[in-house]
Amino acid sequence: MAVVLFVLYKVALFVSLKHSLYPSAPEMPPVVDTSTEELLNELGNVLKAKVPRALEALQSGLSSEEIAKIERDGDFRLPDDIKALYKWRNGSRIFYNDNKTPAYDGPIPGHRFLPLDDAVKIRAILKKTVR
After folding, report:
1. Beta strands in the chain (DSSP E)
2. DSSP annotation string for 66-101
3. Mean pLDDT (10-residue bins), the chain, 131 residues
4. Which residues contact 78 (CB under 8 A, 6 or more apart)?
5. Which residues face 104 on adjacent strands?
6. Are 105 and 89 in contact (CB under 8 A)?
7. Residue 68 and residue 70: Cα distance in Å, rounded?
8. Quick check: 51 and 58 in contact, CB under 8 A?
9. Coil, strand, or helix at residue 12?
10. Contact 57, 93 (CB under 8 A)
């Protein structure tokens, strides 16, 4: 009987600690009714107004035909949201500092938004590495 009480005590202690250490997840936000294209245009406007250098660091977007060719050549299909992203802008340019090291400008400081062809090349390398 003492063992059963001890086990029940430990379970109750674990459950109470679990709730205090791991709070419940917050409620999910409502579904966004705005299209990806509209959100990207809004992002472009914000970058233009507040951080024009970040917007200038982004390359022009790809056409639907260019994206379709990359998909065919790579034997994969991109989700519509990713296609919209690459139609908006095709990644960021690489700039070089005075000491010839690459510096990435763009919406996320210190990170590079990969052009689609670079992302596909890295995907191919990773596929070979994993196999």
Report:
1. 58-60, 89-92, 94-96, 102-104
2. HHHHHHHHHT----HHHHHHHHHEEEE-EEE-TTS-
3. 67 64 78 92 94 89 97 93 96 75 69 90 88 70
4. 67, 71, 86
5. 94
6. no
7. 5
8. no
9. helix
10. yes
The pLDDT value given to residue 93 = 82
From the list 124, 4, 24, 128, the residue with the least C-alpha distance to 74 is: 124
CB 108 within 8 A of CB 55: no
Q: Report pLDDT for 64.
A: 97
Distant-in-sequence, close-in-space partners of 56: CB < 8 Å, separation ≥ 6 = 105
pTM above 0.85, yes or no: no
Exposed/middle/buried for 45, CB within 10 Å: 0-12, 13-18, 19+? exposed
pLDDT of residue 88: 97
